[in-house]
Amino acid sequence: MSDNIIIRKANESDLEEILALINAPEADNGTLMELRDANTIYQTILNDSNYFQIIASSEQGIVGIVTLVIIVQMTHEGSTTALISDLIVSEKLLSQKLQATVTIDLLQYASNLAHEYGCYKSMIQNDYQSELTEGACEALGFEKSNHSFLTF
Description:
- This protein is an alpha+beta fold.
- It has a single domain, classed as Aminopeptidase, CATH 3.40.630.
- The chain has helices at 15-22, 35-46, 96-116, 130-139, and strands at residues 6-9, 51-58, 61-72, 80-89, 119-125.
- Strand 3 and strand 4 (80-89) form a beta hairpin.
- Helix 3 (96-116) crosses helix 4 (130-139).
C-alpha cells in the first residue's frame, strides 16, 4: 500500500469529500450533484450490505474512490459476482506513479473484499481515467474480455 495513503470503506462523514472528488472536471465530466440529492443516494448505498464505496485517503483528504457491488445470482449455485466501477483518482496526486499506485491499491482492496464475499469472478468497468485503470488491471492480473455489451 502507498505511504501515507489509507484504503478503507467509506462512511457517512466522507460524503462531502467524495462529492468534491466526483465533481472535479476530470471525473464524471464535471457534473455536479446537489448535496441533498447526493445525501439521499449515499444513504441508500451505505444501507445496502452488497454495495461499497471504497476510498483512498491521505493528509490531503480523499484522493481516490472506487465502487464495489456484490451481485447475488441464481446461476453458479447462487454464488456472487463483483462489479467494480467508478474508479476515480485525484489529479492532486501530482506524481503519475503515485496515481497508479493508489489505483492499484483501490482495486486490490475491492478485489480482496469481493473474495471475502465469495465472489467467483470480479468485473471491472470504468468510464474514467482509462489508462490508470487499464494499467492497474494488468498489474493485478485481470484478463480482458470481449463478452460485454453496453448501451447508454
